[in-house]
C-alpha cells in the first residue's frame, strides 16, 4: 500500500515555500550522464514524486515536454499554481501507474521520492516508459546534515542533530533506504549500465527561518505534529531560540550554511 505522508494542504504549502531545487552538482551529474548516452534535443522527461515542482521545473530548459507526477493532489495543486511553462504539465497519480506511453521517455527522475514508492512495481513502470538508452536518475539528500556559521558550526550542528534525535521515533520505515544510501534500490535496477554516486556534498546558504521551514517539511516532523502538535511546535520554537542564541542575533533572517550529503543513482536502459 502507498505511504501517504504528504497529503495535507498545509504540508504542501510548506513544501512550496521551503523545498529547494536539486543542487547544481546533481543536475550536472545527470546531464553529463545523459549526454554520453542520448543525443539532443531531448524529448520527454518525467519527474515522479514531484511534490510542489521544485525538482520538475529545472527540467524545463532541457526537454521538449515534461510531466511532473505525484500521488498527492494537494502537492500537484501547489505545483500547478506556481508554474506556467508551455512544455510542463502535472498529473496526480501513483508512481507505479504513470499515464505515459511505452518507450516514450528520455529521462525519469525522482528527487527525495523513490524510497516512498513500491520499488519493484515502480522499476517495472520505469522500464515500460523509458526509450532504449533512456536514463533514470533517483537522488536524495541524506540525514546527516550540518549547520555552519564561522566558529559556531559545531554548536549549531549539535542543535540540529538534537532535532533529528527528537524526530527519530517518527521516522517511517521507508527512510531506511535513504539511511543506507539507496543501496537496495540500486541493486534492484535491472540494467547493467548503472552507477551509484555517494557523498555529493552540497553547501546551501540559507536563513535560519529557511532551515526551520525545511525541517518542518520533513515527513517525520509532520508525523510528530500529527501525534503531538504542542510538543512539535515547541520543538521549532526551542530550536529557533537556540540558533539565535548561538549566533547572537535577534532575527531568523540571519544567514547560515546548511551542508548536506546526497546520493544519486543513474542508469540507462539497454538498446
Ligand atoms: C520528500 S517529497 C519530494 C518532493 C519533490 N521531489 C522535492 O524534491 O521537493 C516525496 C514526494 O513523493 C510523493 N509520493 C510518495 N509516495 C508516492 C507514490 N507511491 N507515487 C507518487 N508519489 C508519491 C509524496 O506525495 C511527496 O510529494
Q: What features would you describe in this structure?
A:
Helix content is 38%, strand content 26%. With 271 residues, the chain is of the alpha/beta class. The chain has a single domain (9-268), classed as Rossmann fold (3-Layer(aba) Sandwich). α4 (119-129) links the parallel β4 and β5 (130-141). It is globular and about 60 Å long.
Structure keywords:
binds S-adenosylmethionine, 8-stranded mixed sheet, globular, alpha/beta, 38% helix
Summarize the structure.
Helix content is 38%, strand content 26%. With 271 residues, the protein is an alpha/beta fold.
What layout of secondary structure does this protein have?
Blueprint: H1 9-18, H2 24-35, E1 42-48, E2 63-70, H3 73-82, E3 88-92, E4 105-111, H4 119-129, E5 130-141, E6 146-148, H5 153-167, H6 176-179, H7 183-188, E7 194-207, H8 208-215, H9 219-227, H10 229-247, E8 255-268
Parallel strand pairs: 1-2, 1-4, 2-3, 4-5
Antiparallel strand pairs: 5-8, 6-8, 7-8
Helix pairs in contact: 1-3, 1-8, 5-10, 9-10
The protein binds S-adenosylmethionine.
Amino acid at each position: 500500500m502507498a505511504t501517504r505522508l504528504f497529503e495535507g494542504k498545509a504540508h504542501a504549502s510548506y513544501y512550496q515555500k521551503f523545498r529547494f531545487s536539486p543542487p547544481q552538482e546533481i543536475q550536472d551529474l545527470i546531464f553529463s550522464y545523459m549526454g554520453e548516452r542520448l543525443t539532443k534535443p531531448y524529448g520527454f522527461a518525467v519527474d515522479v514524486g514531484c511534490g510542489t515542482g521544485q525538482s520538475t521545473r529545472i527540467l524545463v530548459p532541457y526537454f521538449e515536454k515534461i510531466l511532473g507526477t505525484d500521488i498527492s493532489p494537494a502537492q500537484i495543486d501547489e505545483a500547478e499554481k506556481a508554474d506556467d511553462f508551455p512544455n510542463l504539465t502535472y498529473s496526480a497519480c501513483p508512481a507505479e501507474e504513470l499515464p505515459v506511453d511505452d518507450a516514450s521517455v528520455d529521462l525519469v527522475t525522482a528527487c527525495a521520492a523513490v524510497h516512498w514508492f513500491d520499488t519493484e512495481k515502480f522499476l517495472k513502470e520505469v522500464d515500460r516508459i523509458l526509450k532504449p538508452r533512456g536514463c533514470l536518475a533517483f537522488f536524495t539528500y541524506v540525514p546527516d546534515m550540518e549547520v555552519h556559521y564561522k566558529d559556531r558550526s559545531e554548536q549549531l550542528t549539535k542543535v540540529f542533530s538534537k532535532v533529528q534525535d527528537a524526530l527519530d521515533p517518527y521516522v517511517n520505515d521507508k527512510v531506511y533506504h535513504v539511511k543506507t544510501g539507496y543501496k537496495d534500490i540500486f541493486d534492484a535496477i535491472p540494467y547493467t549500465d548503472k552507477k551509484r554516486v555517494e557523498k555529493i556534498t552540497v553547501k546551501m546558504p540559507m536563513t535560519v527561518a529557511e532551515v526551520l521551514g525545511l525541517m518542518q517539511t520533513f515527513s517525520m516532523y509532520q508525523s510528530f505534529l500529527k501525534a503531538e502538535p504542542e510538543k512539535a511546535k515547541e520543538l521549532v520554537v526551542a530550536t529557533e531560540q537556540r540558533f539565535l542564541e548561538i549566533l547572537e542575533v535577534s532575527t531568523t533572517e540571519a544567514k547560515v550554511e546548511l551542508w548536506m550529503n546526497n546520493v544519486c543513482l543513474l542508469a540507462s536502459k539497454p538498446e
